[in-house]
Amino acid sequence: MKFQKENKLGEIVVQFPAAEKIFQQFHIDYCCGGGRTLQTASLEEGFDLSEVLLALNTYYSDMKNTSTADWYQAPINLLVNHILQEHHAFLHTNLPKISDLVKTILRVHGKNHPELMEVYHYFHQLKNELDLHLIKEETIQYPAIERFLNTNKQEDLKEAVQIIAELEKEHDATGELLRKFRSTTNHYLIPDDACSTYLKTYQALEALEGNTFTHVHLENNILFIRLKNLLH
What we know:
Elements: H1 9-15, H2 19-25, H3 38-45, H4 49-63, H5 76-109, H6 115-151, H7 154-162, H8 164-184, H9 196-230
């Protein structure tokens, strides 16, 4: 078996990026909680360790000859551009749309589904925090990275590294809010009286979760580590 219970979640996805599909399938936090071993995560989150290991290693066996992007080896500027294009752009486009959807289903279904009040509250807390988080990355960290790549000056790299602890703390807060979404919605279970907008909202929230997990993984477990390793 390629992966064992002692392997850390973040390291698994670095070695085998397609593993994030398995972790998302089992609702395992591999981004903010990427420093945990599979065994520790199973104790904390309650998933069946043997089932996840079997799924993970079977998928690895099926996919090992498939070419995937190695973001730990790719040029840092390409990694940053990928994050901007695939994840920041996703948030800029979808957060306002989801805000409208969440408001709509609260107005229409809130009387019979009081949990939608919590969904509304958690989403707008998440949106506000992510809006500020993206601004910090796009106006402070990423420009500092670009300057370092152009100048090779350590002071530029230090500026990019100094903000990492703050960004990681915000990632943790995002992960906690996403867990609250999943718990409050009973894993995005659609009630019998749901309309098409209700379904669309829950699908959008689940897509937001998946995209954000990948986003945070690329930063916490790859970009931030690579930047720290360059500092001397």
